[in-house]
Design goal:
alpha+beta, Neuraminidase, Leucine-rich Repeat Variant, Cytochrome Bc1 Complex, Chain D, domain 2, 23% helix, 23% strand, globular, ARM-type_fold
Amino acid sequence: MLIRPTTLLCLTGALLIGGLSAYVDTNPVRQVRLRQTLAADTLPKLSLPEGADPNDPDWKDVDLESKAPVQPLSPADEAKQFLLPPGYQIEPILTEPAIQQPAAISFDANGRMYVLELRTYMLDADSKGELAPTSRISRWEDKNNDGIYETGTTFVDNLIFPRFVLPYGKDCILSMESDADNVYKYTDTNGDGKADKKEFFTNKYGRSGNVEHQQAFMYWGMDNWLYSTVNAFRVRETPNGVIREKTGFNRAQWGVTHDDNGKLWFQGGASGLPSYFQFPIHYGNFDVPNEFAKGFDVPWGAAVKLADMQGGMDEVRQPDGSLKRVTGSAGNDVYRGDRLPAELKGQYFYGEPVARIVRQINPVVNEGLTTLHNVYQEQQSEFLRSTDPLFRPVDMTTAPDGTLYITDMYHGIIQEGQWTQRGTYLRTKIEQYQLDKVVGLGRIWRITYTGKERDKTRPNMYGSPSAALVKHLAHPNGWWRDAAQQVLVQRKDLSVVPQLTALARTSPNHLARTHALWTLEGLGALPAATVQQLLKDPNPKIRIQALRAGETLYKTGDKTLEPALKQAMADTDTDVQIQAMLTAKVLKLPDLETSIKAAMASNTAAGVKLVGEQILTPARPRNMGPFGAPELSAVQKASVERGALIYNELCSQCHGNTGLGTPAGNGRLLAPALAGSLRLQGHPEYAVRVVLHGLEGPIEGKTYAGGMMASMKEQSDEWMADVLSYIRNGLSNDAPLVSAQQVAAIRAKTIDQKGSYQFASLTKLTPFELQPQTLKATASHTSSTRIGGNVSPASAFTYEGWSTGGRQEKGMWYQIELPQDVRVAELHFTASPVRRPGWKPTPGAPPTPPPMIQTYPRTYTVETSTDGQHWQVAKADQKGTDGDNVLLVNSPKTRYLRLSLAENVPSNPDDVPWSMRQLKVFAQQ
């Protein structure tokens, strides 16, 4: 558990308030580590690892002399190593021993600071124990308002490398763990500062593998959707469940933020650069050349002398040993506060922890396209630098007090174990300076400016009436506006709709109008008349917001907006015109091609031309999955398109245009919501049976005004497959399509069904998925490029996937132990092609798709066993296929399943591995 607040006052509080004149650490384990570092003699001279070429650029002129170990400094002494522009100061507000290895912070609407503590990150150079359940999320308060967060609790403990923390109401957060798929809501119900209630929020959210490559930073956008890095979708909670929509690929790793216009900015990782920022991500991807000013990829860190760069000596600036090209970035923030100089508003900040810098970026918009400039490039400097090699800035945050906070992990190693293996250049430098000994520390810093005192007003939004929160929508600090909007949306208090409508229509403050508009959208109370009015507003920023918010109304069926949305494509403002084109694209407005061409003819701005051309001739979607996420085939696309027509002509009347259900008054719906439905995304037999034979009566205790779902068995197998494929692959759902063959098989299986189903009896007839966390997987071969064993046979259940690595050979096996004896109905898995290893495009040649290797099992046998020793053949000579594989097992009760390859696959020209991902086991009652 965390140190008690009274102890913190004696230790951390005294240190901070007293000028940090001493450095105290009460953690016994870490005391040993620090003593080892501080007392260690210098190492003997190192030598080049075996096989290293001294003439290789990575090793050329490398210094292998023995060095004194890097010493951790007290917060007071670290503060002296910072270099800031004139007028800026930096001060610690929370440090170890209270927190350890902080990776991100987030504030709730009462100003309480949640800290994501990744306590297992790189505790040694081999990343051992990285997935131990010892990380936590703590919560901190500054109760005496002196600027120091002295009172803390462990809000959630014993976590496996948590991916994010998002405050989600009073005493409530959302988070998830590494190598997991579910997001959970954690709530403190008794007010003791510790979450005692854990609820499922949404699934299909994660992936496994390298901890630096998994999703992170769940983030509440101004448009009331929740976004994250890595994932090409957004989610949103509705009264009928969590829904999702597909977005473009954000190509980010650690950092999401938004500006005053609500545009999201994503931060890359290994690229060392911002990843996607030109346009809102839900419009898809647009490739924009020259997004970064010349020299943008050159960092100007202070002299740290260590030259501990993963890329080797070729990445080192001599003679100061600093990084000469960005290589890793983490954390980001568009500063929207009010207690730093006005010229910082709207500036983008991000950390480069390898270079030990925080960079300030000036976004310059010209003809609708944004170019990023390093503000201090001409001075060959950065906004914040440090000569302390342990400074590791991993997050930046506009705070409730109007200043800018920096999360500093203060850590020896900042590259994950995959890149610090023995024999590498980086491992040599780690051992030379004993960087692996400096662990378990961490600091949160506040940046202030001379003559601008921080805002000492303590937020109390959870205890404030809704009318008071509306006033905060005009606050000069963007954090206050965001928090007030989020609380209002979660309260669903419609009493403030008139107040919000007036604010959106008439306020002289365009920022207040923007937040009022999106608050109305979040409450489901945005009138079309308000959107129509704001589309004609003199301020182009407001017209842009009206276009975006109007998308919600159009998608829910209000087609009266169509003429105004089309007319906006002829707007005299370039940015408005581009936004109108994006809106028309995402809504698939009629006559889209004609309207886009007319817009391009009326405006020669570079942004209009680029967006128009890429809407009319979209680039082939990039394959972003580690094992590939194949596009739908032409046949599958045609099926989904036919299904969309059927749904909109027939099903939408009861189930709603967006699948959220059609309101029937008194809080009831005509029919169940289909968007985000776990039942609809489960085994397809449930939905096929319903469409074939109908469903009546309560569903999970709820009754619907429509009464029943009528049988449609007179329709063809293809018709049913089309509409169900659209429902399962659209409407916020993400599940495999349904084939006409599957429908035909279920039709034959249920031919004796008389009348409609009741929900309770139907669920007993339908195969159900066994949850992956209840299954134990082993395999004869497993490819792992990870140190620490994150890739395992269990990875087959995730998006990351499992692979044998080497070529398929007869006798290779994959085994699943079930939680108890069950009747296995089916196995589903995806086997997608992978890029041929070592392939590189030919310089100067036209771009061509990379050659792919098919990884599906060519021929395999399925066996069952009750004891794991004696096996019975359930299915012999099964043929795998590229993409989705569905295997009917229909076994008697069994405890073990084993898939074994029945033939060798020759390597010509490459080894052909066996891979599986998204493996699902369905059982039958």
